[in-house]
Every structure is written in C-alpha cells, then in structure tokens.
Amino acid sequence: MEVAPENWIDIGGKFGRRFRALAEQVPFVCHGLSLNIGGPAPLDEAFLRRVRRFLDAFSIRCYSEHLSYCADDGHLYDLMPIPFTEDAVDYVAERILRTQDITGRRLAIENVSYYAAPGREMDEIDFINAILERADCDLLLDINNIYVNSINHGYDAERFLKALPAERIAYAHIAGHYVEAADLRIDTHGSNVIDPVWNLLDTAYRHFGVFPTLLERDFNIPPVARMLEEVDVIRRLQAKYARPVSERLAGHG
User: Fold this and answer.
1) What's the total number of domains in the chain?
2) What local confidence, expressed as pLDDT, does residue 252 receive?
3) What's the burial of 137, exposed, middle or buried (CB within 10 Å: 0-12/13-18/19+)?
4) pLDDT digit string (tens) for 11-52?
5) What CATH number did the domain enclosing 103 receive?
6) Which of 61, 130, 147, 243 has the maximal Cβ count within 10 Å?
7) Is 99 within 8 Å of 37 (Cβ atoms)?
8) What is the pTM for the complete model shown?
9) Residue 2's domain spans which residues?
10) How far, in Å, CA of 215 to CA of 173, rounded?
11) Residue 151 forms part of a structural domain
12) What is the rounded end-to-end Cα distance, in angstroms, of the chain?
C-alpha cells in the first residue's frame, strides 16, 4: 500500500489507530506530494524531520517523491517541470543528498509527466540518469508517465525505458490517463490502464526483472473487484518473468 505522508503525519485518534493496524499487516511505502525537490525555495528541513519520524514510527519501506517542483513562496498544487540543464542536475542532486541525510534513508525519485520543457539543454533521459548517479538515489519508475511523455514529446517509450538503470528501481507505478488529442495525453490516474501501458510494463519486467508495482487510481474509482482485475494483470505479468533466486544469481555470474 502507498500513502502520501502529508495526509497522515500527526493523525491520531481513531484514524491513527487504524493506520497503525494496517501498517502492521501489510508493507507500506510513502509517496510525497510537497517536498519541492526542484523548486527555488529552501528545502523544508523541518518537514523532512517530521517525515523521518513518521517513516520510522510505522516501519515504512520506502520514501519517494516527484522529480519536479511544486512551490516557491507558497504551494502551487501542481507538479511543474524542472529545466533539463546541468545546473539543475547539480541543484536537485544536492537537495536529494540533503534529504537523504535528514531522513536517514535513500530517496526514490519518480520520472514525472510534463507538458512543456522550458530551458531544455539535454534530453529527459540524460537528465534523470545524471541525477540518479550524482545523488546516488533510487528510482520510482512510473510506466504510464513514460508512455504519456513519449506521445506528448515524440520519443520511443521502449528505448527510453531500457536506458534507465535497473539497479536503482525501488518500485513502480502504473496508471491510466486521459486522451486529449492524438498527440496529447494527460496523466490523470482516473481511468483504466490501456494495453500499450501494460505492454510497456511487460517489457520492463522482461528487461529488468520483476520489481514491486503499485496500481494508482486517484478518482473515478471503480468497484473494488474491477480494480483487483488490474492488480491481477500485474501479478500475472510478474509471474511470467519470475525466476528462482538461484537462476537470477547465475545470470550475473
């Protein structure tokens, strides 16, 4: 299960007790909404200390955030694109390193959907890989975002996917999106996953091996049985590429 820490930090009473009970039953990860890792405002270190206490208290398995910015003097309530530049790589990597120092754990950054690329000096894939390397952090691999961006910005989704470093994948997201036009997709998490996105997940498992994968659905919530059908698709694809540990190790010998 995945939660936004901003929605649960300092929650007590009945809901706090329910959350603790759930966290003791199933693994939880946290996906942040407000860290503003690429923004111009100073890093909110007081907030990060609260996040660390929350992660420690509930034995959260992973803390992830968006590779974007969402605030300056106040919150923008949207995920804005960071310019793909060398200066931005240095700036973001330094903030990720500081985040990891404060939280005492690796941060997983998510490749985000974006609809404009202001000040672009390098390709998106080079920008992401440079930050992963310089900050020595992990990757939250969003399969749908790769597909959406490939349509909106005209690149090959499979080639982009295969250029990411397997060893940094912490877990993945998969979701649906909205078709605005033939050449414009909007990342909404409000519809069913479509076949090209499932195919890209299949390619990811085949290329990288199986990794934990979370189905995102933010609104237009269908009956639970319908959502579980999509979870079952994930499980079937994972089973298709699952190999015993001995075989995986032999492949690296």
Assistant:
1) 1
2) 41
3) buried
4) 989 999 999 999 999 999 999 999 999 999 999 999 999 999
5) 3.20.20.150
6) 147
7) yes
8) 0.92
9) 1-136
10) 6
11) no
12) 34
